[in-house]
Amino acid sequence: MPKVPFGPTYDEMLNPSHIDPEIRKKALHSKEDELNPINLFNITWKNENNEVNKIVLPKELTGVDANIVVLLGKYFPSGSHKVGPAYSTLIEGCVDKEIIPEKHTILGPSTGNFGIGVAYICNLMKYDSIVIMPDNMSKERYDRIKRYGAKLDLTPGTESDVILTLQRTYELKKNPNYRSLAQFELLPNYRFHRHVTGNSAIEAVKGIGNGRIACFASAPGSAGTLAAGDQIKQAFPEARVVALEPYECSTLMNGGVGQHRIEGIGDKMCTLIHNVLTTDFVALISDEDSVRGLKIIHDAPHILVENGVDPKVAESLRDIFGVSTICNILGAIKMAKYLKLGANDNIVTVATDGYDRYNSVIDNLNHRVLETEDFVLRRWFKDIFLKVDTEHVDDLRSMAKKERLFKQKEHDWLRFDYSIDYLNQMRDMKFWNDEYELIKKYDKKILEKRGKEL
Ligand SMILES: Cc1ncc(COP(=O)(O)O)c(C=O)c1O
């Protein structure tokens, strides 16, 4: 009989201090040996001292008084926090006996980081896997997926063509040996981020400003990360949750469906697991600003220093952000201005991954623009970071606005065999709270079955 993989509960991912000390020690010592399955116990936002990996952005970079706190996803195994939803979906399926080790092949529809997470997790948990993704994403993504041993099934296009990956997955799923870790539609993604990311965000602001969260801003791909907002609102009911979109692909704001350059977000849909009830605002950020902003931070720390950023801090920022992080940071700055937040207020956002998968994107930028001399980068720095405006923010708090998003969801998901009754249940917060409560059931099952025969 196949065995259930030996991995953490939701509680242990949030609180690694609750892991058996011997196992935790082994996991921490095995970080360099990344394909050692004990690394499943390093799926957490916390470092070896049980503190959330985060950075409070220097005010000289943001130009606002509010504290912008960025949670750092780069330190998760596989280099991005998307490994968390991949693991959660697989372990839930496993303890439910729906995904059998050695029998089922795992499908991971993705634009990159989730696919990397799926390939990685399947390597550790001994499943074959196929990552289904567009053929025009950053080269570094495909390299990593192959390195982790997954097969690639490529559909045409870029980030905005992710619907083609869903259609392909829908077809492949007809094979009874295939099981899909469908990040856009399955609730373990919601559970992971509401519980693990949400509560980590709440801990991350302790001792900063007033110790509360005034705003959580995140650019949805699957909208899993946005679920952290549901938990943040439980702790801080005044918190505003903001979905950020590329200006070039403003689906949630006004049905826009253009091509854009921010890998991982702006997928031309309202995902099934997006709880639109708790999304208060949507704001648009330029894709080119996000790419250029990353270039400045990575290639030109001296320009940050000229603007007053501490040299050590400027250096420390170089490798911990990706393009979508810059989008999130620009969105956080925009919302600090829009919501008129002050020095006591905290905005939390997320760096899903780090620079390691964007060299090719910055090379491409260098080829696209005529000059990247310092005098150009100086101007970019001021225009992109210091002159963020409060345009293109839409208030989604009225039911009329939410209705538009519910309709978008129907448009996107009824075609994949979800019933209108199921979608209507999502109009009530009870649906989301009930789904969240399932964590208790799953944690109990994971503990009981860990490492044992199915
Ligand atoms: C780089 C990057 N940023 C942001 C996101 C969006 O995160 P989520 O899917 O949780 O909305 C993703 C998702 O894959 C990503 O890869």
UniProtKB/TrEMBL annotation:
Q: Which residues form a coiled coil?
A: none
Which cofactor(s) are needed, names only? pyridoxal 5'-phosphate
Q: Does the keyword Ribosomal protein apply?
A: no
Q: Which Gene3D superfamilies match?
A: 3.40.50.1100
Q: Where is the Tryptophan synthase beta chain-like PALP domain?
A: 68-305
User: Would you tell me the protein name for this molecule?
Assistant: Pyridoxal-5'-phosphate-dependent protein subunit beta
Report keywords, A-Z: Pyridoxal phosphate
Superkingdom assignment: Bacteria
Q: Which GO terms describe its biological process?
A: alpha-amino acid metabolic process
